[in-house]
Design goal:
Blueprint: E1 4-11, H1 15-26, E2 31-35, H2 42-47, H3 49-68, H4 83-108, E3 111-114, E4 116-121, E5 124-128, E6 134-144, E7 148-150, E8 163-164, H5 166-169, E9 178-182, H6 186-197, E10 201-206, H7 217-229, E11 233-236, E12 238-245, E13 250-256, E14 263-267, E15 269-272, E16 276-278, E17 311-313, H8 324-338, E18 352-354, E19 359-364, H9 367-373, E20 377-383, H10 388-393, E21 399-405, E22 411-418, H11 421-433, H12 438-442, H13 453-462
Helix pairs in contact: 1-4, 1-8, 3-4, 3-6
């Protein structure tokens, strides 16, 4: 017999899981959330989004103080790095926010079940604590929100000392002289930016012939140019076949992706950032009748129901972009559907953001996708060099690119490379969510002088009537 029964048990307290649990209690459901970490928040809060953004901000301030303030008439003198203090600040940010989620659980009466959860049969969840003791709970609904884990690379063993994942890259005890990053995606480029600003010589190795796969290719090319200007070196169309850690560093063997002669590079630290894989092993899913695809993702319908009655899944463990805000949105909608409400997630309005300096942000279709789909579209572009606020700030790298349907003028995609792009993108998110046209965006008030005016001008450029270029 189960000791306690719930309307909903969520397995995983990351952004999707804890949001779903809170929303479920708001809707009157008795809810528990299983989490094996003592601290709530999952990968994102503990070893992902939040600590990386704290380091990105701190390292950018250091870089500005050391290299960027003189142009503004600010002479700071000799600037030195206190890495221990920077890492301690990052840890405090994480600690404060995890405590905040624990407070929200108490406020909303969500029970935190500490331990490793698994589906133990129809309507049952077993939770094993650190001592190996297992307790069984009953549940009308079970929500799998277990997220994802670091994808391994054949021939490379991560030890979190010399060869690290994104987790180890957040806690390096000293700035490496040479940092080699395997993978030119969001995570690798963000962590490369952190350590590059602090003094590391950064080399990025990417199997494909471009960086940031999935990003609009024109934006990606401009982004790479900016990163090269900042000191990053790129080896594209290249694969890592082996990495051997020694006392003083790592020897990495590389080969051309299309075949050819191998070469060896040496680095103090190697960061493996080739992506993530769903965390679905050991959850008892297949025994419970939950279908997984060939890559280990949980298969669901559009309403997050799995093939097993009463079991649902959201976030990184099901197909789609592995983004915290995508998991949050799915968590809220899944809870609402369980409570008998209507709901759906509009993935066309899901933004993607790279938190480098400058930032890159996008929403909707890329130009590459529209070409592939045979869609008749029109492009409007506006460079930040022509934006007065960007000029005043001294941050003129990048551009805004708006893609609109040629016949209807409906906004299909917006892509921004530039200062604070992650904030600017959200008016485009709203535009796509509400089916706005490029003219709607162009005729909406934008305060002057603001970076947002570049979005307005790009929307005007769709109709060939940008004012400031």
């Amino acid at each position: 017999m189960a000791e306690t029964s719930y309307d909903l048990i969520v397995i995983g307290a990351g952004p999707g899981g804890y949001v779903a649990a809170i929303r479920a209690t708001q809707l009157g459901m008795k809810t528990a959330c299983v989490e094996k970490r003592e601290r709530l928040g999952g990968t994102c809060l503990n070893i992902g989004c939040i600590p990386s953004k704290a380091l990105l901000h701190s390292s950018e301030l250091y870089h500005q103080a050391a290299h960027g303030l003189e142009a503004h008439g600010v002479k700071a003198g000799k600037v030195s790095l206190d890495l221990d203090a920077m890492l301690a600040r990052k840890d405090k940010v994480v600690d404060d926010l995890t405590k905040g989620i624990a407070f929200l659980f108490k406020k909303n009466k969500v029970d935190h079940l500490l331990g490793t959860g698994r589906v133990a049969g129809k309507g049952k969840v077993a939770v094993k604590d650190a001592d190996g003791k297992e307790v069984e709970y009953g549940a009308k609904n079970i929500l799998i929100a277990t997220g994802s884990d670091v994808a391994p690379l054949k021939g490379v063993e991560i030890d979190e000392k010399r060869i690290v994942s994104s987790t180890g890259a957040l806690t390096l005890s000293e700035v490496p002289k040479k940092l080699l990053i395997v993978g030119a995606g969001y995570i690798g480029l963000e962590m490369g930016s952190v350590w590059g600003r602090l003094g590391a010589e950064v080399t990025v190795v990417e199997f494909l012939d471009r960086i940031t796969p999935g990003m609009d290719s024109e934006i990606a090319k401009n982004f790479q140019r900016v990163l090269k200007k900042q000191g990053m070196t790129f080896k594209l169309g290249t694969k890592v076949t082996a990495a051997k850690a020694g006392k003083d560093g790592v020897k990495v063997t590389l080969e051309p992706a299309k075949g050819g002669e191998a070469e060896t590079l040496e680095a103090d630290i190697v960061l493996v950032a080739i992506g993530r894989r769903p965390y679905t092993e050991g959850l008892g899913l297949e025994e419970a009748g939950v279908k997984l695809d060939e890559r280990g993702f949980v298969e669901t319908d559009d309403h997050f129901r799995t093939s097993a009655d009463g079991i649902w899944a959201i976030g990184d463990c099901r197909p789609g972009p592995m983004l915290a805000h995508k998991a949050e949105e799915e968590g809220m909608v899944a809870a609402e559907i369980m409570a008998g409400q209507a709901g759906h997630v509009n993935y066309d309005a899901c933004p993607g953001i790279v938190y480098t300096t400058p930032e890159v942000a996008s929403v909707g279709k890329t130009e590459d996708q529209l070409k592939e789909d045979g869609v008749d579209y029109t492009v409007g572009k506006f460079p930040f060099t022509a934006n007065s606020r960007a000029r005043a700030n001294g941050e003129t790298d990048g551009l805004v690119k708006v893609l609109a349907d040629t016949k209807t003028d409906r906004v299909l995609g917006v892509h921004i490379l530039g200062d604070d792009a992650g904030t600017l993108i959200h008016e485009a998110v709203a535009a796509i969510e509400y089916g706005a046209s490029a003219e709607d965006m162009a005729r909406t008030f934008h305060g002057h002088p603001t970076l947002n005016e570049a979005v307005k001008e790009a929307a005007l450029a769709v109709a060939g009537r940008a004012i400031h270029i």
